[in-house]
Amino acid sequence: MVCNLLLLHICYDCFFKIQYNNLLNPSQLGDSLIVSLSTPKYEVPGQPYPFGGGGVFGASPYYGCNGFPFPPQFQIDEIKKSNAGKHVLKIYKKKMGIVSQTIDTIKIYPYETKTIEINW
Asked: Residues 6 or more apart from 115 whose CB is under 8 A from it?
C-alpha cells in the first residue's frame, strides 16, 4: 500500500527572534553581513516537485547603514513565525576586509520561541 505523504504532512508553528552580538563592531568601510534563514527542500517519493525551501528571514546590514553604529546586543523586536523543524542558517560576512561564510542547521521546536544569535 502506498501512502500519499501530502495528506499526512502536518505543519506546526514555531517562532524565532534574531539577536546580533557586536554587530559591525569593529568594522571598516565595505564591511557587511548577510544573514538568511530558510527551510530545507525535501522530496516525497512519487511526487513530481520538491517541497519546502522557502525563505523565512533575510537581512543585510553594512558599514554605515541606518542605525550604525549598533549597540553591543541588538535584537530585532519582531517575532517571526515559521514551520517547526530544521532551518538552514547561512551567514556571509565581510569583516575587516576578510570574507567568510558559514552554513548551519537549527532546529526549532513546535510552539517554541527561539532566539538565534548572530555573532559579528
From this structure: 16, 17, 18, 19, 75
pLDDT tens digits, one per residue of 54-110: 889 999 999 999 888 889 998 888 899 998 889 999 999 999 999 999 999 999 999
Phi, psi angle pair for 42, to nearest 5°: -145, 155
pLDDT band of 5, cuts 50, 70, 90: very low
pTM (two decimals)? 0.81
Residue with cell 552580538: 21
How crowded is the C-beta side of 51, counted as CA atoms within 13 Å?
10
Q: Which residues of 12-50 are buried (b: 16+ CB within 10 A; e: fewer)?
A: eebebbbebeebbeebeeebbbebbbbbeeeeeeeeeee
Distance in angstroms (rounded) separating the CA atoms of residues 6 and 38: 20
Q: Rounded to an integer, what distance in angstroms lies between the CA atom of residue 111 and that of residue 15?
A: 7
107: buried, middle or exposed (CB in 10 Å: 19+, 13-18, 0-12)?
Answer: exposed
